[in-house]
Amino acid sequence: MLFRFALLLTVVCASSASAADATAKRVIVIAHRGAHGEAPENSLAAMRKAAELTCDYVEVDVRTTRDHELVLMHDGSVDRTTTGKGRIEDMTLAEIRELHFKRGQPNEKVPTFDEALAVCKGRIKVYIDHKNAAVADVLAAVERHKMLADVVVYGSVKTLREYKRLKPKVWIMPPHPGDAEEIRKLVADLKPETLDGNIVEWKPEHVKAAHEAGAQVWVDNPGIYDTESGVRKAIELGVDAIQTDHPERLIELLRSQKAR
Q1: In sequence order, which residues have a C-beta less than 8 Å from that of residue 229 and are 6 or more positions away?
Q2: Which domain holds residue 213?
Q3: pTM (predicted TM-score)
Q4: How much of the chain is in helix, strand and coil states, percent to nearest 5?
Q5: Nearest 5°: CA angle at 251, between 246 and 256?
Q6: Are 196 and 218 in contact (CB under 8 A)?
Q7: In which band, very low, low, confident or very high, does the pLDDT at 223 lie, cut at 50, 70 and 90?
Q8: How far apart are CA 10 and CA 6, in angstroms?
């Protein structure tokens, strides 16, 4: 009887350890510019779809208009993705509102940052790619929506210093700085919660250095790396998050690898 109890206890403990391991291996999924397979990139529809797919974060690009309004647009101009032409910084919000995305629903317009936060709140966290916006304006919008704990900001080291100066609790994410020693120095100096970078930049010793210094590792899997082999490589490296243009496929691959 005692033997059976001991055996049962061993099995239970092993199962608990396996469950803990599975939880530890869970990889964060970031929808790059939203789930834009069918919806326009950086659109509210793409954000809603990313949330529907159970992505953890949606990546958005924040820029400032001529009249100091925050809008979402990856490029410096509206030419590629909308029916108009011109640079964001030279246009007013009203002028941008006259445009439509070339893809998606005919009435789908370029969203403001406030609109994006309103759609994402309580549904999905936000990865802010800081373009040319004023740091104080971005933080003010985040705080209006009470989402400081639900965003992470990517940008230059100089820009991220300003974020930390104004709001020490905001999560920041600088780009991969180089080798393992540079990673250790950057984390000690800037104290970012996570580091970013193309998956080809990351080597096992880099991931180890970041983790030992106290920072997570979030990688971008662009183009030819946004595949099953790219996902396997990311998992083998031990990264904490993967940014993808194909979130639905990534989630399926992670589940098949017991990383989701």
Answers
A1: none
A2: 175-260
A3: 0.89
A4: 45, 20, 35
A5: 130
A6: yes
A7: confident
A8: 6
